Amino acid sequence: MKIFDLAGKVALVTGGNGGIGLGMAEGLARAGAEVMIAARDARKSKAAAARLAKLGPGADWIATDVADPASCRAMVKATLARFGRIDILVNNAGINIRKPPETYAIEEWQRIIGINLTGAFLCAQACHPALKRRGGKVINIGSMTSLFGASFAAPYGASKGGIMQLTKALASAWAKDDIQVNCVLPGWIDTDLTKRARQDVPTLHDSVLRRTPAGRWGKPGDFAGIAVFLASAASDFVTGAAIAVDGGYSAQG
């Protein structure tokens, strides 16, 4: 359908070399977008860009530290030099450290907040002039911890709660620029990050299956469709929304 067509569009995906970010990037590429992957691991990014280039019109990658304002500006400059425009920003880069809240060092708190929340703000801020030229889309990645408390992830939950409020603020501020800003709330998804979570929290796997009506963990490919919807003209009147992609996990009381 033409309303979902992303031909001629350019998407910038932070942390797009694996997991949910790569799942979204694949959806965007299949819908016709050129994709720039911005991430720290050069080997993974190079492989992801090669994979995306086979699915869509073109892809590339750039090493980026989203917590560094200069790196974010360089990311935007490189994307514009390579593709000539930016229409879609996916703020997916994130980290987590799981431990009781009383045991975090301040450096650990600052690192998680710096990448997950400040990084999303810096990337959005750096992309704003390019997005404003033709109207654009920002897709922020929140979490179920945007809604629920997790005893083993206090700074992560704080960062993802902040992502929801940042989404609403940017949506309100940038509506006049024809920029729609929305937030995706992943449930429990089978990624490298959650594999480590299952090692750290042995009861997690069975607990997730019991609470998820779909009866399974999500897969990165489950995010291709929501990425295309929020990046396309189909969502032009959707902004400031937080959309759960969780197999019904958050529908349970």
Index terms:
253 residues; alpha/beta; Rossmann fold
Structure overview:
By secondary structure, the protein is an alpha/beta fold. Helices cover 46% and strands 15% of the residues. It has one domain: NAD(P)-binding Rossmann-like Domain (Rossmann fold, 3-Layer(aba) Sandwich), CATH 3.40.50. The protein contains 8 helices and 7 strands, in the order βαβαβαβαβαβαααβ.
Structural class comes to alpha/beta
Query: Low-confidence parts lasting 5 or more residues at pLDDT below 50?
Result: none
Q: Quick one: biggest sheet?
A: 7 strands, parallel
Radius of gyration: 17 Å
Q: Please give the number of β-strands.
A: 7
The N- and C-terminal alpha carbons lie at a distance of 37 Å
User: What fraction strand?
Assistant: 15-25%
Please work out how many helical segments DSSP would assign. Answer: 8
CATH topology: Rossmann fold
Taken together, the total number of domains comes to: 1
User: Can you name the CATH architecture?
Assistant: 3-Layer(aba) Sandwich
Mean pLDDT: 95
What's the helical proportion of residues? 40-55%
The SSE string, one letter per element, is: EHEHEHEHEHEHHHE
**What order do the strands of the largest sheet run in, or round the barrel if closed?**
3-2-1-4-5-6-7
* CATH evolutionary superfamily: NAD(P)-binding Rossmann-like Domain
Q: Which of globular, elongated, flat, extended, rod-shaped describes the shape?
A: globular
